[in-house]
């Protein structure tokens, strides 16, 4: 990742890039298992400094790529267990994980590990979907349900959860009811169209305060024109400029982890979805606590 | 289409999805004959409710997919005859056709059938091109001329015609002269750039009144970044958000039919142009008279 | 190009389209050597008149395509010499060259030829990158350094240089320092997001005055969603609408040459990057001195 | 499928095409869940008669497409149970299933259903891999193990099992040991190169006799040049001509079912892998007991 | 084409490359209208001499590319008239046309022009299909019927017609009956598999004698692995080596014209189908009467 | 590569995989600079043992991937110097390099380093082209000339050079004259068509004897159907089966190095050209001196 040194564990690191090559929680088009590989390949084009914000993450923090965690492609609950245990180890020594997904299922075991250390976390969640489904085909664990599982287990500080970019047709006449009932703030894509999101992010920063929070970024929050390489694209989404406004708007928050999920590179022969993923991960790195600006 | 039941005729239906797999009216890149097939495939991702507007079309209306009408790929005038006759049958029983094109030639025989029933109709026409050419290579019928043919046959209520998204280089120094002379309102893409189209649609609704009107949506009205899978792309077009504003802005109008044309899927390996087409057809369905909102 | 006559030299022409099929100055993904071929192919869709501005370039000026200049793919400095000499011949008789690149290296020898005739020129430079690097791998000539070479040789009137769309991560903590020191105006992409660039262009016109100026348009100035077919894409770039605002905003200036570079068509199977390039070249043609508006 | 009537169950049919859209047993590149959809789409080009063999299947047998069986994408053992039960129902009335996969995992529950009716079956298995792995990541059920599971449950008549096209690197120094120990005949790809397989098929027919047998055709048995759209391609495989020799060589055998698996269409933008799959399924249909030759 | 001079007419030429950008006779996937453009682009890789046979066509004959003939995309019979008249002019002065198709419909008017000059011609026809259909959708003219039209008009010397590579499913139980009745020799693909075609071509040369003959090569005669860019691919076809054996095997015959049809480049992003087409046209050129061997 | 350990130098290794990401010696389509990256990615599918030959390379030799050597993309002669020096270091300690190209230019400096250690080497060269050009555009160093440079510097034992798969049109009426004059054996593709190459390889083994020899495999030796991802494809080439026969036929020879060049992955979206490259490199590894067979 980003021509960083590769090391086997998170020991001694402030920040670790971690791949989670799992996609068997995907309801529609699989392929996100190759997200980590392709994001790493495209990240070769990401350079050392953030020319726009002046952030100098590699001068500020010890960062490395610790490779992929083990998953079991044939058994989703078992994969979740493996991920949770790996992340418990990563965060044990105070390292902040930046995750290359993988489908969105993986955020559930990651937040299990993070909440075990930090208590319930705030959440900035960019996505086309709320991912708060109850179950599908009778199964509780898949990429449409991670945040309901998190709520049920008390991993989220529900008054500090914001979901941005939500849109699309739904199975349910009132698709945001569950979220509202938990106290989530849902910002539909319609409220974002053709607008700067800086005002929104001012409110979000106030809401998050200085308590631990997490950024979960599903690449399908963006419009498919920018990110065709994903499994459940929805039309009329966010732009990359808005994505940068959201992430840069998190500067100053107490970020304890981030993920970028649902890059399925075979649906984008140009490689640009993975390039976008690599840049968004770099921008997340640039807003982590302790990153100096030149 | 949208996992709907398939039936052989429009009998007993309020609304019918109809495919018209014709593309021999295409001047540049053919392939729209596969539009219906690919839009149907991608429509598997469209769900039951409109999460954004609350529309519940399947709870409100009897809707089915009645398959493709017959066309004659080797004889354009004959194809037009076949389409006109099929649509006369569809509309005879009061069914509203939602058409999956096919190139834009097909709107001419469709409007022949609709005007025979409803009289001259108003038109919301989204497109990069006005499609009011006189003839090409000496032929009167092709995808650049349908609306001139409609004017000549009195199928349009010319004072209630709006063309949105028009742009691009032209064969003629004053390319909108014919349209202006008929009383059409031409809204060039330049007037739409980086703007919400809600104010425009308020004016359009006032102009349309409660008389019968038709929506004809050429996917090349959108920018090629969103809809690369089409035959005559033009740069600097509309966005999907604006497309939704236009269609949702037709809510309350007396819509007697809609089409979505010029999806040529082989130019978009991601499948997203067809996905866009499927969603726009769903949104058209959601604004039809009689659709309840939850 | 644009179904124009092909001729062997620029003699007797007001404007010549010229291809420069060189891409060995490329740092990341090569392929721009096929830019001229593909732009020409897609330009078949560009018609005679500018429907938006009313410009009638072919009624106003003698325009032809004079084919590709010779380059030496295995020797960059030698290629620069060949290009410079070809352009000296082209501009000798007063012809304005519109160049189909090729990677950005080629602007250096082109400006050598132009400045030899016109003296130091003003520059409207659209790009994701400033291209003012000093050297790479010890080499002074590659596609990241042309404008530093131009400054060193006094080819630019530095107080009339504007760079628009700059963004992305950088090797240097202060990536625009060199540009600022020369007196360039750098307009980062962030200042362009979701905004009309007409106000900017009013300022640019005032700055350029009536002295000779050049337009250098790197297609990666646009967002990769619109222009995936390029070698060093950067996320969150300009839109085609903004590109048109920039070029149309140059109307009235004393333009002595233009280029459109870095189209690498194999990364865009839809052909739309080259289509965009062809249209932008047409728009450049439409703003040249002497073009009448109908 | 092949423009056949669609019906909900196998009742009254001699032969049913059945889709099994499962790919979560895939070890490398997923996507075979879309095999049934794409094979059906490409089968539109398959016509009524076999011009080469004279077979007239639709004049001889009652054939229909009964759609897809239900699978549970998030739970492989549960999917196997669902498939087995569906196939028990299909074969109950004497119908022969022709399956559109899906990854190779599915052959295991299909053979459970068939062996329950017919007893242990013979097998012509075309593949790059023997698919007799014991387990992967501790899981017994995935696309590399179906035939070991079948052996363990006595579903195969091991003296009548032939595996053709086997090749590639292996985890094990003696990769065919297990197969040999069961009495399988393994025909490596090397023995097939540049040879007609008609002599082999004469021996196979003798070996199969007139007892029930099954054809399981993994598209990766073919060389990736012919079938790039698959998940675990191996170089230097069979040709389509050899595939036809194998299937046509089964004419006269007591075939009780067939499958064509591992078509992952997103890796083949030309559509030709699915076209190949559709044709191979047609050829299987043409050699079923009871098909007349004109 | 092959970096040849372009000229407006066939005057003074021994051989002319001619493009016929028509594809509205296509039954399945259109796109062959772009065959000429793409074959010309790929022919840039074809060099001056035939390294394998020693043929030196450009040292022996006056050859040029005379561009595309006019066609009417919206009217097939009218297109046929335009093509016939253009070819009458080309052959009037003794020039041999080498045609870049376009769909197979075009061979009908080409043979009208050739037979008017030379009388009924012999034919080496490489194809997956016999193209002797009577009509489709009631139309007599489309890409499945040219050779029946030719028979009806006495353009073919039926005792000297050979069709090679025929295969695939058919609408008719005896698909070759018509051909046999006319006295055509049909060589199914099955008779070609894994065999050198040199023995066949010895027989063909004897059959053709020294009377005028024509080569019509449908790229779908080849297997889709080699030529995916075509409209009606059929599995298990010829190889490029066999194609070269066929064409080289025509050396010494009285060839009065050749065509290479049905290259639809958008189905082959690698460009290799067009490259194959360009090379086969070069090989046809190399076996024309009067070409010297070094 | 092949999930091997990565190490910084060749010290302590019997065999090293080395990448050379250079493609600026390419005459037609560039992109081979990404060959090493893509071959490594696809090599994840290569397993530990050679199931066909029983070779167990990783049980026999110390093998690692030592990454890419440095190249200078903007200066070909300088790149050659860098490569030569890197390989001198690699072979100094007795390590055998297996190279992932890169265009064919790189074989020249590699053989400089090898001949400095071993004296003039024998050569098995698989390619569509002899690569013995004198110069292009006045330059001596590019991908069409490496073996002439090697002859001039006495790096090859010319009586032990075999070139297999040569074909295609040529600039020269007698394209193999130079090779014949040096005593090379040229085996044109025509002599390989539809034949096992085992007899040829028996002769090659006799010719090579037990003196040092090198294998240089240009992926364009194979037919473009198998290897579309390359820069100068030529039709009617070898098959992967023949490639395996050639490499396996080198077992027992005194191989001192091997390369696999000209994989340009962007021309093959399926990834299969790189997969082929990875497997051919594995097969080369399997025939190195000292590899045991189980």
Automatic annotation (TrEMBL), chains A, B, C, D, E, F:
Query: So which cofactors does this thing need?
Result: Mn(2+)
User: Cross-referenced InterPro entries, in alphabetical order?
Assistant: Agmatinase-rel, Ureohydrolase, Ureohydrolase_dom_sf, Ureohydrolase_Mn_BS
Q: How are cofactors bound according to the entry's free-text note? A: Binds 2 manganese ions per subunit.
A GO molecular function term, named singly, is: guanidinobutyrase activity
Q: Which GO terms describe its biological process?
A: putrescine biosynthetic process from arginine, via agmatine
**Which NCBIfam families does the UniProt entry name for this protein?**
agmatinase
This chain belongs to the protein called Agmatinase
Organism this protein belongs to: Hirundo rustica rustica
């Amino acid at each position: 990742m980003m021509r960083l040194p590769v090391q086997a564990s998170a020991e001694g690191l402030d920040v670790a890039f971690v791949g989670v090559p799992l996609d068997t929680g995907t309801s529609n088009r699989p392929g996100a298992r190759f997200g980590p590989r392709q994001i790493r390949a495209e990240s070769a084009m990401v350079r050392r400094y953030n020319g726009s914000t002046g952030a100098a993450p590699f001068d500020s923090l010890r960062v490395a790529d610790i490779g992929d965690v083990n998953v079991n492609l044939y058994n989703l609950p078992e994969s979740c267990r493996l991920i949770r245990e790996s992340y418990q180890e990563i965060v044990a020594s105070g390292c902040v994980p930046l995750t290359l997904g993988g489908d969105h299922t993986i955020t559930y075991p990651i937040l299990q590990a993070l909440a075990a250390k930090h208590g319930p976390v705030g959440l900035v969640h960019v996505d086309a979907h709320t991912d708060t489904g109850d179950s599908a085909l009778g199964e509780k664990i898949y990429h449409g349900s991670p945040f309901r599982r998190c709520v049920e287990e008390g991993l989220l500080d529900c008054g500090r959860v914001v979901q941005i970019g939500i849109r699309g047709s739904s199975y349910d006449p009132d698709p945001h009811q569950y979220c509202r009932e938990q106290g989530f703030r849902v910002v539909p894509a319609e409220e974002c169209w053709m607008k700067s999101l800086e005002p929104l992010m001012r409110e979000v920063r106030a809401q998050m305060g200085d308590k631990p929070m997490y950024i979960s970024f599903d690449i399908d929050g963006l419009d498919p024109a920018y990110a065709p390489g994903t499994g459940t694209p929805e039309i009329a989404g966010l732009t990359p400029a808005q994505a940068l406004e959201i992430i840069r708007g998190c500067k100053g928050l107490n970020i304890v982890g981030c993920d970028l999920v649902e890059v399925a590179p075979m649906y984008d022969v140009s490689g640009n979805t993975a390039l976008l993923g690599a840049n968004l991960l770099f921008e997340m790195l640039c807003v982590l606590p302790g990153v100096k600006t030149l």
